[in-house]
């Protein structure tokens, strides 16, 4: 039986921090003031994967009060959680994502984000989609006060791989 998962994350942007999305460091003058690197795209992907296998969420597996998560690279969370999906007997079929941030041009970084996520999940590049939206200056993302991401994933049981 195929299963889907949906993930979402939003973080406030602050000056002087690093902006990391999909494992890509983007020169922006602002970034996430969070326990890990704050990569909302990777966080949304983990939440989507966890939802697909009905196993908690990002905070269940990588709690903010865990000293091991301090300044952690969130793309590593995606890679680690891909193993959890496999332990549950599933494989990822494809991933579709949106990043919303109006004040930083993300298009030049999309292919690197796709490649990083594909690599972390063991997927071919054509199975990973990342899109960016500006929100046309509307809301905290459009105004550059926050960045958010949505992810949707399809997983299937390993035994049905060739069905």
Task: Give the arrangement of secondary structure elements.
Layout: E1 3-15, E2 19-21, E3 24-26, E4 30-32, H1 40-52, H2 58-61, H3 74-87, E5 90-100, H4 110-121, E6 128-133, H5 139-143, E7 146-157
Parallel strand pairs: 5-6
Antiparallel strand pairs: 1-4, 1-7, 2-3, 5-7
Helix pairs in contact: 1-3, 3-4
Would you write up a description of this structure?
With 163 residues, the protein is α+β, with helices and mostly antiparallel strands. The protein has 5 helices and 7 strands, in the order E-E-E-E-H-H-H-E-H-E-H-E. Strand 2 and strand 3 form a beta hairpin. The chain is globular. The model has no long low-confidence stretch (mean pLDDT 92).
How is this structure best summarized?
The protein has 163 residues and is an alpha+beta fold.
The helix fraction, in percent, is 25-40%
> What is the element string, with H for helices and E for strands?
EEEEHHHEHEHE
**Biggest β-sheet, characterized?**
5 strands, mixed
Percent strand: 25-35%
The largest beta-sheet arranges its strands as: 4-1-7-5-6
**What ranges have pLDDT less than 50 throughout 5 or more consecutive residues?**
none
**What is the number of beta strands?**
7
Rounded mean pLDDT is: 92
- Tell the overall outline: globular
Radius of gyration computed on alpha carbons? 15 Å
Total helical elements: 5
The first-to-last residue Cα distance is: 11 Å
Structure classification:
alpha+beta
